[in-house]
Amino acid sequence: MTQANIVPAGTATPSIIAMTETKKQLTADELHARIVEQLEDDQAQELISIPLGGKSSVADYMIVASGRSTRQVAAMAQKLAEKVKSFGEPSPRIEGLPAADWVLIDAGDVVVHLFRPEVRSFYNLERMWGFGDDGEKVAAGKA
């Protein structure tokens, strides 16, 4: 006859605790800060962060940045998607990756637009949202 491990009621073994723990969902500000940090690490150029609170129900932040080439834009987008997933967030939706002229990464509370410089100047998203009219740029910085 073998003896079973008896655990007193109300206690759990460490393996059960580890299996039931879930990653804490990041706030919009925390997610924004981590995305900005990742883009800075990947040497994104002319990074602009636009707070959308009160302007749009789509997201809390929109980030616009440029890469030097289609290859860099695609690499930044793929790496950012992997990082967002590693933060415990759902997999972001990505549009425009095959051409990599303009890649949109929808990370929920933060929407990221990555452009080649020529494409970015053509669409000028910052101006549409009221930034850049008089040369003013929003400092990305840490949230």
Instruction: Report the sheet with the most strands, covering strand number, pairing sense and barrel closure.
Output: 5 strands, mixed
**Strand composition percent:** 15-25%
Mean pLDDT: 81
What's the helix-strand series? Answer: HHEEHEEEHH
CATH C-level class of the domain at 46-143 is: Alpha Beta
Shape: globular
Distance between the termini: 61 Å
Structural Rg: 20 Å
What's the name of the CATH homologous superfamily of the domain at 46-143?
Answer: Beta Polymerase, domain 2
**Class derived from helix and strand content:** alpha+beta
Number of strands: 5
Number of helices: 5
What topology does this entry show?
Layout: H1 14-20, H2 28-41, E1 45-51, E2 61-66, H3 70-86, E3 93-95, E4 102-106, E5 110-115, H4 117-123, H5 125-128
Parallel strand pairs: 2-5
Antiparallel strand pairs: 1-2, 3-4, 4-5
Helix pairs in contact: 2-3
Structure explained in plain terms:
This protein is of the alpha+beta class. The protein contains five helices and five strands. Strands 1-2-5-4-3 form a five-stranded mixed sheet.
